[in-house]
Amino acid sequence: MATRSPSVSIVNVRKIKFVNNEFYHLYNRGVDKRLIFNNKYDVERFLQCMEEFNTVSLVGSLYENSFLSPEIRNKRKDKKLVNIIAYCLNPNHYHFILQQIITNGISQFIKRLSGGHAWYFNNKYKRSGALFQGPFKAKFIDSNEYLLHLSAYVNLNFKVHQLGDQVAKLVKSSWEEYAVDQRFGLCKKNIILDQFNSAKEYKIFALDALPALVEKKKNDKELADLLLES
């Protein structure tokens, strides 16, 4: 992994310069801490957007894309904006670890996701106005150690926040892809898993790191404020 800047402070996305092949932690929450996913369908649709909007090609709505031939859809998948390393979709906020592939790839990807989801959500639930709490936040991942521990934080974010059973039912994360070493999925898992002997070894690493991650979250006001209970 390339040598990285020591600065990892939270910065406004308008000020940060996203560099190709580097890794970033992105997150945002619903305006006024409101829910951004009300049910499982909302979550599954967002996941579909994560897959279909991650392309350098111009994209339409999910409905418009459904008319594309399988050949075109598969070709689009080969020309991505970002590599998705890990994600967690919580009821009122999301986390991503992304690696930018092309210039401006992260900004384009998040813009498409946020704009598309806000349009869908407002139309479905008969509301208007902003859905997300301003521009998304970004942290530059400046070391491999940070990347590994952050992958555990994002994959297990629903456990970090210690959500109740009813709320946790709305959560979807890449933990399932990592914990059982699935061959297919949204994430480019080899960047993390190739550093372990097996998915089982990574699972042990992540679960062992969880108590410290919970404590760290309590001391990070920006991350703690993402909590539903805050």
Quick overview of this protein structure:
With 230 residues, this protein is of the alpha+beta class.
Provide a descriptive summary of the structure in words:
By secondary structure, the chain is α+β, with helices and mostly antiparallel strands. The protein has a single domain, classed as Alpha-Beta Plaits. Helices cover 43% and strands 13% of the residues. It has 11 helices and 6 strands. It has helices at 40-52, 62-65, 70-77, 105-124, 144-155, 157-160, 165-168, 175-179, 190-193, 199-218, 221-224, and strands spanning 11-12, 23-29, 82-89, 93-100, 137-140, 172-173. A 6-stranded antiparallel sheet has the order 1-5-2-4-3-6. Strand 3 (82-89) and strand 4 form a beta hairpin. Helix 1 (40-52) packs antiparallel against helix 4 and helix 5 crosses helix 10 (199-218). The longest helix has 20 residues, at 105-124. It is globular and about 45 Å long. Mean pLDDT is 83; it is low at 1-14.
Unreliable spans? 1-14
Kindly report the spatial arrangement of strands forming the biggest sheet. 1-5-2-4-3-6
C-alpha Rg (nearest Å):
17 Å
The share of residues in helices is 40-55%
Task: Tell me the number of helical segments per DSSP (H or I, 4 or more residues long).
Answer: 11
CATH class: Alpha Beta
Give the beta-strand count.
Answer: 6
Strand content: 5-15%
Distance between the termini: 37 Å
Order of helices and strands: EEHHHEEHEHHHEHHHH
